[in-house]
């Protein structure tokens, strides 16, 4: 069964829900609603990684996320902390997070791998080629899924060398990160290359720009409802391809899509 990670962005500027949940009480209420809708993990983030965004001071990031992580952990809800900062990752695990989700796979902060190793948390390694402010400068691939898989393999090797047991590692091809338009579809078409790494695979397509581009045929954004419908379809296809979990904003839509996909599979 494909799991659902519900996104709780405690940020003023995330890609599609920026500013809605910057107040911790609203973020907590939102996360609880996502849990009730069927999320198996709540993924809490305090720094936007949308294209062009700037880095956030780790102290500000911690202020945003720690009360939210604590509130979910106190209710026994599995929490993932979406951060590129080792200090935030360590603090969030102390506050109860069970998974560190680093979209940079440990590349952004040289202290990340050691922090995760000693924390005992699971580690979601995202494929990444550089900070969001100029990530499209690195969007150059011949065989996208092969290159993403081979770069992820080297990050998995670095994580294992730092003492993170392979069973604790999750891999994520980083949809939208240093990948433009069709390159994202190339990665998804070749998802078998990512699965062949032998780890749990997490995918985040939710509301991303490449879906808008596919629906509209132009770089213009389509509205949230259409992006959520497109995301629900990618969730169903992820289930079809044996993906371990999908990271989404609209948990209810993906829950329904997965129920239908699983019914078809029998
Ligand atoms: N995408 C975003 C943020 N965190 N984490 C993982 N593991 N995979 C992703 O694809 C991913 C992520 C950016 O999306 P958002 O700004 O809508 O949260």
Main β sheet profile? 8 strands, parallel, barrel
Strand fraction equals 5-15%
- As a whole number of angstroms, the C-alpha radius of gyration is 17 Å
Q: pLDDT below 50 for ≥5 consecutive residues: which ranges?
A: none
Give the ordered list of helices and strands.
EHEHEHEHEHEHHEHHEH
Estimated structural class: alpha/beta
- Read across the widest sheet, the strand sequence of neighbours is 1-2-3-4-5-6-7-8
The percent range for helix content is 40-55%
Give the rounded overall mean pLDDT.
94
Q: What shape does the CA trace take?
A: globular
Strand tally is 8
Distance between the termini: 12 Å
What would your notes on this structure say?
By secondary structure, this protein is of the alpha/beta class. The chain has 10 helices and 8 strands. It is globular and about 40 Å long. The protein is 45% helix and 14% strand. Strands 1-2-3-4-5-6-7-8 form an 8-stranded parallel beta barrel, surrounded by 6 helices. Bound molecules: pterin-6-yl-methyl-monophosphate. Pterin-6-yl-methyl-monophosphate binds next to β1 and β5.
């Amino acid at each position: 069964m494909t799991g659902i990670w519900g996104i709780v962005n405690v940020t003023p500027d995330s890609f599609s829900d920026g500013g809605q949940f910057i107040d911790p009480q609203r973020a907590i209420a939102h996360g609880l609603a996502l849990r009730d809708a069927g999320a198996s993990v709540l993924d809490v983030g305090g720094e936007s990684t949308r294209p062009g965004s700037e880095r956030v001071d780790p102290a500000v990031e911690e202020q945003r996320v720690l009360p939210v992580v604590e509130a979910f952990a106190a209710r026994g809800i599995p929490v993932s902390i979406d951060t590129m900062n080792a200090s935030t990752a360590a603090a969030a695990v102390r506050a109860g997070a069970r998974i560190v989700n680093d979209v940079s796979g440990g590349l952004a902060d040289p202290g990340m791998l050691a922090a995760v190793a000693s924390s005992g948390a699971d580690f979601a390694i995202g494929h990444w080629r550089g900070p969001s402010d100029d990530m499209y400068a690195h969007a150059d691939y011949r065989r996208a899924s092969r290159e993403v898989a081979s770069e992820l393999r080297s990050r998995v090797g670095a994580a294992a060398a730092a003492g993170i047991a392979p069973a604790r590692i999750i891999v994520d091809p980083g949809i939208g990160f240093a990948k433009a338009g069709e390159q994202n579809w190339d990665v998804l078409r070749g998802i078998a290359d990512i699965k062949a790494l032998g780890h749990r695979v997490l995918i985040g397509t939710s509301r991303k720009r490449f879906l808008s581009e596919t629906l509209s045929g132009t770089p213009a954004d389509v509205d949230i409802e259409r992006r959520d419908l497109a995301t629900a379809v990618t969730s169903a296809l992820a289930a079809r391809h044996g993906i371990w979990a999908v990271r989404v904003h609209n948990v209810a839509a993906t829950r329904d899509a997965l129920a239908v996909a699983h019914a078809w599979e029998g």
